[in-house]
Protein 1
Amino acid sequence: MLQDKRITLIVSGGIAAYKSCETARALMRAGAHVRVVMTEHATKFVTPLTFEALTGSPVLTTEWQPGPKGPMPHIDVNRESDLLLVMPATANLIAKAARGIADDLASTLICARRTPIAFVPAMNAAMWRNPATRRNIEFLRREGALIFGPAEGLQACGDMGAGRMLEPAEVVDMMEMVFSPKHLAGKRVLITAGPTYEAIDPVRGITNRSSGLQGFSIARAARDFGAEVTLIAGPTHLTEPIGVKRIDVVSAREMDEAVQIELDRQRFDLFVSVAAVADWRPGAVSEKK
């Protein structure tokens, strides 16, 4: 879905800027053309030369540099972009975007945009919880902007909580979704995936070697096509696609119960049953090995 797409990667000043390097490479491996715009603060974390080496294109940092076609880079770059990807999106740049402030190349580019835009927030947990930041994010959402993340976890400052930027692979996964045709928009899809495990005793059980990959891949494709996806998964090491609701189960009975609960709770348009459900279970489960 990213083949020949023109992505403008706007890098703002945060410690997570280094992840944008891998994102640029991953987008190019997926067939996209990547142009990088950096704020002045971003250049303190990663040099423009790094992105120039990765993308093969000059990095734009100020409004006074010539654009691809002339002296107005904020107009030229927008004309040649299929999507603006702001990564990392700091609280400062998010606030500028929400309020229409255009005081450097990055914010002017966002203000003059004529294509879809996606923000990948990255900031301290307290900054993410700040009411002003929350208002700005909700405003951008209402205006049609895409918000990828943030994740929760340990941050560079040592704090724990929401505000950690998504990993490059997750961002590229979301980008695939953006450009997928929305054949299933407005539809609900229920999917079962993975093996089931039927306990014999506390350490033994009957199972199979199903990885769950087929069901998880179908869930990702349905999500990309615009569906609201619920994934009921047996024991597997896989991580569910972002935006997919996951329900974990272990045994065949638990999977059956979870399916029935979901069917009773709401109407689904499509049910895809690819879980490798066990054919047998012990008549009794021993409490001891």
Protein 2
Amino acid sequence: MQIWVDADACPKVIKDILFRAAQRTETSLTLVANQPLATPAGNLIQSVQVPAGFDVADNHIVQQLSAGDLVVTADIPLAAEVVEKKALAINPRGELYTPETIRQRLAMRNLMEELRSSGEQLGGPAKFSQQDRQRFANTLDRLLAQAN
């Protein structure tokens, strides 16, 4: 299993959890972003800087991943592509995307986008909490244990 991270918008605390988990389980971890990223020393963790542009990082991840890999992303369309390729996808709040749930998440995303484009003021996502961080760590640990 390889872990891929859609790293441009990934919270630092989640990257730190990923760094520790990759080192503990000796799992390769690649952060993909359109800006330079600092990573801990070692050969398990790397970052890839892609050119700026719409979905460039997402496209890089989809092209590189294999079935069974794990992708960390809050991007619903990217998660849908990952699931379609028989890989795993979780968001930084610890939600595992499945073939069953991704359709619902895409529909909700599209509805919210439509409402925003019509001028609705909807507010953003809830503030990232300690519970979100713990849920992510627990989901990540479970997935890594299942892979080994």
Protein 3
Amino acid sequence: MKILVTGAAGFIGFHVCQVLLSRGDEVVGIDNINDYYDVNLKLGRLAELERHPNAGNFRFIKLDIALRPEMEALFAEHKFDKVVHLAAQAGVRYSIENPHAYIDSNIVGFTNILEGCRHNAVKHLVYASSSSVYGANESMPFSVSDNVDHPVSLYAASKKANELMAHTYSHLYDLPTTGLRFFTVYGPWGRPDMALFKFTKAILEDDPIKVYNFGNHRRDFTYIDDIVSGVIATLDNTASGNKEWNGKKPDPSTSKAPWRVYNIGAQTPVNLLDFITTLESALGKTAEKEMLPMQPGDVPDTYANVQALIDDVGYKPKTQLKEGISNFVNWYKDFYKI
């Protein structure tokens, strides 16, 4: 198959490209290589893809998904079989500082993806949503059948908008779409703006770490390999309409249209202080902690109910936190020559 992966230089996109190449797919990766975080990390990921044994099946194009004419030309030229859309402006707190970046990438860019799929007979679009869509919902574990109409950040609102936009295209044009609500992804080649990366850097440099909500967060930390296995399994199981869907009692996670949304997480929420203890053990160093109140736009806990993904595609997260953190620490020390 010929597959477009957007955000190919990003954390999840890079790993997805690796797996697709390993199984013999032809992959076109696009990314605008923006400076939201260290560009060298993105370039390092691309260098790894260029060294892949099946690198001959990979082509990278530097491209911003918000550019409509360029995106139209990309889809028209390549006639992709399927699309994995992971490019987005990420980050809850940054959406408070720079809201326009989220509209440009997550709304305008997503529209260009949908239009490209619609006009070029793409068989399945799998796209990144986020656990952030649950917002003010406090019912645990989060279920895809829950109401998600109370986002607490523009980032979350943009991801909820993506789900609604995808449903419209699935309904109007019979375009199969599947949204994946990612829950706190971590692992080698991870993002520098995420807690594991920031904590590791600070502890190794003997700087204090900022512990928000006084450590009373719980997060459904999900290892990158488990995430990618779920993405690939979802990609291979094209969304179809739910014949039992009832408009009088609508299920928010399915539709008569070929549209689905799933949670993808570890199903094992971890207290932030326990997470830090596990990291300290892997590093062999104790962190100096600066305890702070919760930040605007953040939520206290995330906890995924992933039963629908287990039932439909056989998803099975298996990486334990201790193993995942150890793998990250080993990668970090190797990449930064520590």
